[in-house]
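Deliverable D5.2: sample structural annotation.
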Amino acid sequence: MSAAPMSPAVLMAEGPGTVVRIHGRQVGDRVYRGTITFSAVCVPLLVALVGWEIAVAGWPTFRHFGLSFLTSSDWDPVKERFGAAPAICGTLVSSAIALVIATPLAVGVSVFLSELAPRWMRQPVGFLVDLLAAIPSVVYGLWGIFVLLPLLRDPVMPFLRDTLGLGKTPFFSGPAYGPSMLAAGLILAIMVLPYIASVSREVLLAVPRAQREAALALGATRWETIWRAVVPYARSGIIGGIILGLGRALGETMAVTMLIGNRQQISASLLAPGYTMASLIANEFSEASSDAHLSALMAVGFTLLVITIIVNAVARWLVWRVGGGAASKPL
């Protein structure tokens, strides 16, 4: 399509999914184009600036300790020995627990609200699910201390460890204090559930009606229509929602700091206390007095940023691959 300059401005749509170009010589058009271009450039520029500042501040630690900073468990600010392995491990494990618990619940909620719930129930329940995302994390932390931890310490952890016999495995061995990796994973699961459920519900609602009608016309039951026609069609969007929840779980600070126990050690038991990178920074940044300690905390922050970027990059790749596969598969 030719792109001859026109005045006033003309919007030129070049087909679904393509770029819409704005042509025109009016001052307003140029100002509008400059404004939206500046806004689009600001976001990656801001991320790069934050990463650069944290990397520069943490560089002395990376230069002094090298790779051992990521693999060592020795964290002693008095002797200026720093290793972030327990915090890195705690961040990944607590986030993984949250996704394992939250994903099936969130997908179930989204399927119920989009496919099965009565029309009068969809809006109120959907609003309540979305409302979970608006609760401040410190409120989740307080709820966890006064409700979740006593519940885990008395009936749940002894039941898992002794009654079910899971205490014979390394994952549920040891004493049940309450503050633990399991408690942090549970509170994270509650916090990321509305993100996954909200995105999944919107994606499922966007599935064309013809997709359902075609499956029903072929003799599929309601259950088969949902799980063989609707959910696969929305698979890429659901994965995007799961990754959004993972990003939320990786960076969560206050609620996890209040429930995880904050102990610099790596333990296979989910009943044992642990640490995350965000809680490590939150606990020690205000008390860090030496340059080495501050640099180590900045290095932890840069490591968290890199892990988050890698996770999101992998997520985008997965969404792209899954989306392309879903589009090419027949019913």
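Annotation notes: Residues 96 and 249 are 9 Å apart (CA to CA). Strands lie at 10-12, 21-23.
The annotation will be released with the project's public dataset once the embargo ends.
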